[in-house]
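EI: anyone free to look at a 151-residue chain?
SC: sure, send it
EI:
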Amino acid sequence: MNFEETDLGRIEISEAVIRDIAIHSYIEFLKFDPREGKARKEAKSTVDIDLDEKVDGTKTVKISVNTKIKYGVSIPSYARRMQEKLKNDVESFSGLKVEDVSITIEDVYEEPQKPALIEEDDKEAENALPESSEQIVEEKVLEEKKEEKEA
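SC: here you go
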């Protein structure tokens, strides 16, 4: 898409670049690493753009995002923050005006649940099991010290 003519020549920004900016912004909003392949792949199927040239020659961008949200998060607040992030990033990096950012929440997900509370009878059995390899080493050192004192 032609963006600007200067005395030095023409500046063009492809639609793919505008879309990549929006995708990168979306990934950053979710606090994922933009270089992570899985995050980029998911974002590419989530973010879409439409470039439009007005009668007066003004070029604008419309961004559409179909996403999911964690259960318990305020949907209007979350969606507004996402709209602002995408709009600000695309406008500041491309110089194009973002006319619309449409967010569609398609799914709600929950964080993986922690194991259920253990009954009182089971607590003793659980406490008998080491929690980590560090605890195993620590217990062996304590046993060795105890054996040295007894000897």
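EI: The helical segments are 15-29, 37-46, 75-94, 120-128, 133-150.
SC: 👍
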